[in-house]
From TrEMBL:
Protein name (Swiss-Prot/TrEMBL): Berberine/berberine-like
One MF term in the entry's GO annotations: oxidoreductase activity
Superkingdom as given in the UniProt entry: Eukaryota
Family from the record: Belongs to the oxygen-dependent FAD-linked oxidoreductase family.
UniProt KW keywords: FAD, Flavoprotein, Oxidoreductase
Annotated ranges, domain FAD-binding PCMH-type: 39-210
Record's signal peptide: none
InterPro entries in alphabetical order: BBE, FAD-bd_PCMH, FAD-bd_PCMH-like_sf, FAD-bd_PCMH_sub1, FAD-bd_PCMH_sub2, FAD-linked_Oxidoreductase, Oxid_FAD_bind_N
UniProt-listed Pfam families: BBE, FAD_binding_4
Length: 475
């Protein structure tokens, strides 16, 4: 592990006002390096935990003065280590996790180190909900800056479509507000490429009345029901309902009883309507059925048992044009199950497919925000989890091969329809450097380069899907 220059460290300590500082000699140093995935952990030269924007500003100036590598940690869910630094500085926002609710304006403001658990629970106290993630220990920052899909997206759009303002600490130390009326170009860039411009100290979201419980839970099916499950989920998209959503998971049963198809269902309405909406799935006689009326804040805990901290993890984004071919799904399912059965260390891995009503999301023009992937294409993830670090390359290579099969299928499908298959893909499901998912910013790239040149001309923020800079930048 590279040693941090002692003079530089002394300078940092003398300048910071209230931040907690950790170096390799500090008690608790290894604790602050922990990430959701062990593949995301690196040994920082120094970690600071600020409680205000001033210390963030000071730290940014210091990192540039001493040419120190910089990373920013919110929820720490990056599997590729973008929230960590090998020998450099990590600005860890975890102490900045306050959430406040304005009941008159129906807004929720979350600091950059908060998780969706804090947002969900704070909103629930006032019968309000914001569009957040589907795993509640995910940080608000990463999910928001990349776009943000959630169970309420069918009704209200993406998280960024409900972002009202943000407080941003820029590379030059300035602390600014970005909104529809202030620093409008920065506000545009934050919504879909927001990792590239500064440290976001807080986000203010539009919230919505959510006093009633929702119909949600798990359905579990044996492998023989796969085609029936696919037909039912495809039909849900063919007859869309903005209040309905589902996540389909290919995995081994936790008790070791064999392969399963798990469906997490969601319906933002009363019991009778929810039961009707899921009737085609429940008619398939699931071996597990926990669908019931639950508080909205509970829905975002349903994936937590699978998405626990620890082990080594890899995300590979996959994308499909609905309806999803049940025969293709069967081939993918069988190959995946065979692989994780042959490699017991992969037994807790999964393929996760989303079924979301995209109509509200697609109402926003492609150039309305920096997010360029507003289209009917559905998202999914190849989620690998293992413990043996010597298998990192092997497992990631295999995941990329599976990812390529989805890309080939999407290309063939869109070609048949006479549609451009080069649609930009969802940034939050694309690991940096992923050659299969290479088109991120689409037609928004040139404008993003201009915003980048204005707010971060030295490219201080470059860890997550960096905006390419160079000769193609129009002055």
């Amino acid at each position: 592990m590279p040693e941090m220059n002692a003079t530089a460290l002394d300078a940092l300590r003398s300048r910071l006002k209230t931040a907690t500082i950790y170096t390799p000699e500090s008690e608790g140093y290894k604790d602050v390096l922990v990430r959701w995935s062990n593949t995301g952990m690196k040994y920082a030269g120094v970690v600071i935990q600020p409680i205000d924007t001033l210390d963030i500003s000071i730290a940014l100036s210091w990192a540039q003065q001493y040419d120190v590598d910089l990373a920013v940690k919110g929820g720490g869910h990056s599997t590729a280590g973008t929230s960590s630094s090998d020998g450099g500085l990590v600005i860890d926002l975890s102490r900045m996790n306050q959430v406040t609710v304005d009941t008159e304006r129906k807004t929720i403001t979350a600091q950059g180190g908060a998780t969706w658990k804090e947002v969900d629970e704070a909103g629930a106290v006032h019968s309000l909900a914001a569009v957040g993630g589907t795993v509640n220990h995910t940080g608000v920052g990463g999910l928001t800056l990349g776009g943000g899909y959630g169970w309420l997206s069918g009704q209200y759009g993406l998280t960024i479509d409900n972002l009202l303002s943000a407080t941003v600490v820029l590379a030059d130390g300035r602390i600014v507000t970005a909104s529809a009326t202030e620093n409008v170009d920065l506000f545009w860039g934050l919504r879909g490429a927001g990792y590239n411009f500064g440290v976001v100290a807080d986000f203010t979201y539009q919230a919505y009345d959510q006093k009633d419980p929702v119909y949600s839970g798990l359905l579990g099916f044996t492998s023989g029901k796969l085609e029936g499950v696919m037909d039912a989920l495809n039909n849900s998209l063919a007859k869309p309902d903005s209040r309905f959503g589902a996540i389909c998971i290919f995995a081994l049963a936790p008790d070791g009883s064999g392969p399963m198809i798990i469906v997490i269902g969601f319906y933002n309405g009363p019991l009778e309507e929810g039961q009707k909406r899921f009737a085609s799935l429940t008619a398939l006689e699931p071996v597990l059925n926990t669908l019931d009326m639950v508080p909205y804040s509970v829905v975002n805990t349903l994936q937590n048992p699978q998405a626990t901290y620890g082990d080594r993890k890899s995300f590979k984004g996959i994308f499909y044009e609905p309806p999803l071919d049940p025969h293709f799904a069967r081939v993918i399912f069988n190959d995946f199950i065979a692989k994780i059965r042959s490699e017991p260390d992969l037994k807790t891995s999964a393929i996760i497919l989303e079924f979301v009503d995209m109509r509200k999301i697609c109402e926003v023009p492609l150039t309305g925000t920096a997010l360029a992937s507003r289209n009917p294409t559905q998202n999914g993830i190849i989620y690998l989890r293992w413990t043996d670090s010597s298998k990192d390359l092997e497992h990631r290579t295999w995941a990329r091969e599976v990812q390529s099969k989805w890309k080939v299928k999407l290309d063939a499908r869109t070609k048949d329809q006479g549609v451009d298959s080069g649609v930009p893909q969802y940034i939050n499901y694309a690991e940096p450097g992923d050659s299969v998912v290479s088109n991120i910013y689409g037609e928004n790239l040139q404008r993003l380069q201009e915003v980048k040149a204005k707010y971060d001309p030295k490219n201080v923020f470059h860890k997550m899907q960096p905006i390419p800079m160079g000769a193609d930048l129009k002055k």
